């Protein structure tokens, strides 16, 4: 009865729960691991991604929920449920996902390992010679790093690290004729490879490191009876919110560093454990961490599927996964070898990654670092690649005496320490470094190069939706603009003054920014479409984003739908809007695209009665994007580039290979080509520049009819 009541309450809500929507997104990622048309190694890649996604989900989203539960704060989910009923619903759904995840791994992927050229085996399945090698590896490498940590009347409960594989070993001794049980914890160091590798003639054997430790666990407990040894892994709350402070003297960087340390001690929100664990140990763990069965996930297989990356990236299998085509020259560039400083004086360039390389941006920055005519460089940085060429170029520029100012966002989740480290390197080289703005997270992606050219100073601007990360630029779809247009340059200069100084410009001509005005400006653009529809004029909205969660925007879209505006939304992940509901959202459709590349680009199209306004940039339609982040969307004004952006949206709508259609109840169904329908796979299509040969016709087709 209670389950039925909860389900009815969820169905009645005009919004979809953000967290339940996210879990449905991870199901779409899991769908890629189930795709028999992909190679085994690509399927394993997506399986590992589902595991990483779920880790972050528990650390941040479930962690956030526990911030309310643990401190007695009230929370009403978009589904209409209060904290405790929602916790039950969310964790029940998470259990269902984990069950499906491991059914896929055990039943669909594992049987393919042998044919794929490898096996994951236990020690008992090794030959005698292989066992001797494993024994030697344990003695020489593993054993010296293991530290048993006992918990009893004389030893306090140890601090167990987040997401490390841990053995809970129950031992029994006899004291004064009475048996005494104790639990000792043995954590497997994170700097050891997940698998011990053995080469056989025809294949590679991967032995999980925990199986070697389990095999030799008695070496750590001499002359003591081992009752049980159970492998488990905990996930701690990783969600922290910085206190808003008006104390201008506070050392914000030190505040971040101290907050990072709390992740190690955050409350436990999930316990993954192998089957049939010791009930003696489980009682201790549940009481110590204040968890119950809803937080406990029993795993009947390999714990922590992120370890599959060792197999996926193994040199033996590098050529067996997805082969990415070479990037193509951007449509707005005549060739790859053009002098960008000269070309950008007369032309704007739109880049569409990963189909276009990030090299034009990186090369421009590297040239600027060496060019004696360049006076200064300004840049915002959210995430960087390992061995970043961006950082190297900025360091070189500073060494060459140029003014370099960089805003490093030290609240970029899970990249905080890297950004602090890189920022400190730049500071030592003489760069002016700002470590974010304490009240907000700087998520916008901007760069400006100031160059003296004769009597004139030219500002070269780059602004986009993606990070300055050369590695992820090959995997994420993003949009960016390179220009010397004076209006963009003025807006970006003003924006840098806002985030590095104390400036409040009245307005921007081509930029839409948050936290000041973005929500209101987007809502007004939606209202214009609604007014046009009511007047009988042509109208339409097409939006491609990562997430849609802001209630004010959703309500405005509902109003526009009622006014007769056709609205097509392409939302990769979270979508809290409920499409296709009678008398609410009948004119709204939602699709999600999940495939080889992570859809990270944002594009906003408003028909505007035949004079479309098209924006791109860093912001999604989320509360955090509008209220707690520094974001920017830029208007695409160049006619050719606008047509290209519209074409990109058009083909995203046409895609029938990577697409999922969202239904009114919040579930998704796979979009499949009809019997006589041509397959449209945008992750292949955009590598072929021919998709843009009929610009005008496609431009006309995208004008959504009223």
TrEMBL record:
The UniProt record lists the Polyphosphate kinase C-terminal domain at: 339-504, 511-677
**Pfam families from the UniProt entry:** PP_kinase, PP_kinase_C, PP_kinase_C_1, PP_kinase_N
Keyword Cell inner membrane tagged: no
Q: Which residue range or ranges hold the Polyphosphate kinase middle domain?
A: 130-311
Q: Which cofactor does it need?
A: Mg(2+)
Identify the residues that the record assigns to the Polyphosphate kinase N-terminal domain, covering every copy.
15-120
Q: Which organism is it from?
A: Pontibacter chinhatensis
Which UniProt keywords are listed? ATP-binding, Kinase, Magnesium, Metal-binding, Nucleotide-binding, Phosphoprotein, Transferase
Gene Ontology terms, MF aspect = ATP binding; metal ion binding; polyphosphate kinase activity
The family database entries (NCBIfam families) matched by this protein are listed as: poly_P_kin, PRK05443.1-1, PRK05443.2-2
Listed binding positions for ATP are: 53, 476, 572, 600
Quote the PTM field: An intermediate of this reaction is the autophosphorylated ppk in which a phosphate is covalently linked to a histidine residue through a N-P bond.
Write the Enzyme Commission number(s) for this entry. 2.7.4.1
The answer to whether UniProt assigns keyword Cell cycle to this entry is no
Family in the record: Belongs to the polyphosphate kinase 1 (PPK1) family.
Q: What this chain does, per the record?
A: Catalyzes the reversible transfer of the terminal phosphate of ATP to form a long-chain polyphosphate (polyP).
Enzymatic reactions? [phosphate](n) + ATP = [phosphate](n+1) + ADP
Q: Which residues bind Mg(2+)?
A: 383, 413
| A GO BP entry | polyphosphate biosynthetic process
Q: Which GO terms describe its cellular component?
A: polyphosphate kinase complex
Name of protein: Polyphosphate kinase
Instruction: Name the active site residues.
Output: 443 (phosphohistidine intermediate)
